[in-house]
Amino acid sequence: MDLSRNVSHDRRVLNDLLRPDLSVVFCGTAVATASARRGHYYSGPGNKFWQLLHEAGFTPTRLSPEEDVSLLDHGVGITDLVKNVAQSHDRGLDFSGTPRVAAHLETAAPRWVAFNGLTAGRAAAAQLGLARRKDVHLGEQPWHVGQSRVFVLPSSSGAHATMPYGEKLAWWRELRSASDASPA
């Protein structure tokens, strides 16, 4: 069952990369302007998503944004909480569509949902009534999205460069280890 959505039919900026039986689905806040322009996830020159993904061990080689669909072959998916806006910052985003995104995630039922950044994790927890924003931290969360375990990562965005790259990578590797240890 393919859970991708056609941009032209529901005005999404980018198609979800979802299907059943994924190990991890990375969920960001909204598609960045550069990604919308190129038509591929995490296309901004300062975004470290593809580097972190590879160096953490999710892919055998470093993929380019144009290869985003091939992530499904590696058991990895991508979506965003805000589906109809492209902007390169998180200010003023309308997260009211989060329950609909959560329903798609529940249908796909990955072992893990990994929020790419505290903003995404906190918005999801608050919108879904699972935790207070202030109680969401980096790492594994005590709440789930459907049956999926939840992990909040430091953002891969170049706009969130306050944390050194090596520290970000350590969190991404922790998720990789946890996802390897999870039953299929």
Automatic annotation (TrEMBL):
**Which one GO biological process term can you cite for this protein?**
base-excision repair, AP site formation
The protein's UniProt keywords, in alphabetical order, are: DNA damage, DNA repair, Hydrolase
- Which Pfam families does the UniProt record give? UDG
Q: What Gene3D superfamilies does UniProt report for this protein, alphabetically?
A: Uracil-DNA glycosylase-like domain
| Gene Ontology MF terms | pyrimidine-specific mismatch base pair DNA N-glycosylase activity; uracil DNA N-glycosylase activity
Q: What CDD domains does the record tag this protein with?
A: UDG-F2_TDG_MUG
**Uracil-DNA glycosylase-like domain: which residues?**
18-175
Identification of the protein by name? Mismatch-specific DNA-glycosylase
Q: Give the source species.
A: Nocardioides jishulii
